[in-house]
Amino acid sequence: MNLMRMTVIGTGYLGATHAACMAELGHDVLGVDVDEKKIEALKNSTVPFYEPGLPEVLERNIAAGRLAFTTSYDEAAAFANVHFLGVGTPQQRGSYAADLKYVYAVIQDLVPKLKGKHVIFGKSTVPVGTAAELQQMANELAPEGTEVEIAWNPEFLREGFAVKDTITPDRIVLGTRDENTTAEEVAREVYATPLASGTPFVITDLQTAELVKVSANAFLATKISFINAVSEVCELVGADVVKLADAIGYDDRIGRKFLGAGLGFGGGCLPKDIRAFMARAGELGADQALTFLREVDAINMRRRDRMVTLAREACGGNLLGHNVTVLGAAFKPNSDDVRDSPALSIAGSLSLAGAQVTVYDPQGMENARKVFPTLNYANSTDDALRGADVVVLATEWQEFRELDPVHAASLVRVKKVLDGRNVLPVDAWKEAGWDIKALGRSL
Ligand code: UDX
User: Fold this and answer.
1) Is 234 marked active-site?
2) Which of 143, 152, 394, 404 yields a CA-CA distance of 20 to 30 A from 215?
């Protein structure tokens, strides 16, 4: 195999994983970030966030000399002719649109330092049209005699499965400005291992590649909100959304995945991506095409309100002075990411409504504390359960799914549990004397 040299710019959840996994594939990789603390940690083989399996990959490849980190763009420019751009594109303050300042900054800081022929592969999720705009910027900023090609290579990794999703992706998508570009040739070398094992390789124009990413996330968000909308109806008529999802999921045109009814989606991608997609469609004059995403967003947020209502009802109509235990703070299990987390959102709302809220999450505590310093944070599940008047399961960590209801009953003050993720074995909890309620089901 032809091993390549490359940089990965931006070392957050996406970039750090991409850098480590490209080294794992045998390439020579330099990770770049302006955040000195992050780079210092990574240099010392410490992943600055929780991602199962990533620390091992990082350590192994640093030790093998295939992976290094820097804050210097001069070093990055001299290191390789292939660069991956994986910086964040968060939601703009006061708007639905994506904030592209970090993406622009990379082009502005890197391109003037480049010499010769370079390819920059964008991996960040961006509004359609951004790659063409970056190509224009790069053309203007490139020194005399330097040629920079911008291509788009969206990333589909899920937090919690990031290593697997990067090393064995279910597809590779590449958008290029023309057919048969250098970018395509380079991408075939970079991804030689997954391509050799038959991973589908979809080559498109730039704008299609950009749209593939947001469309995938918009579809997933829509699927979750679909089942959560049905869940609202189930609650009114006493139907069971879990059995319903099983039943429709057997139709392989529908499929059971992402029909998990409950507190809905959060995280650093789905919520901001559907909003940025709507904003971009509006700018393009196609706002009507995506107005349904407003509903997808609204359904998702309503589930959080519903959970607060259920908790209030469990406390006899008033949360004031009641002890509420929220199990989970991360937006999903196997992650420490609390960005737009449904769990933390309801913990905050319950606290603002007067409840004494105690939170426990196996990995998300440090991040949760930064966002909501005023909540009580327990040291363990047991610690969190002690004295509770109602327990809310908000993130479906394995540890919470497997909680022994008999033991849990011995710790709380009142045996009431609200399953926000529809994962608890209902019969076992009932047998242990619990009053169990869940979103979308009358139990
Ligand atoms: C998502 C996409 O899956 C990934 O392809 C993309 O690259 C980034 O965004 P991620 O944000 O890591 O990945 O999480 P994902 O596993 O997709 O879950 C998103 C949210 O949906 C979580 O809050 C999860 O709890 C929720 N969810 C998921 C449900 O509420 N019900 C489900 O059935 C599935």
Assistant:
1) no
2) 394
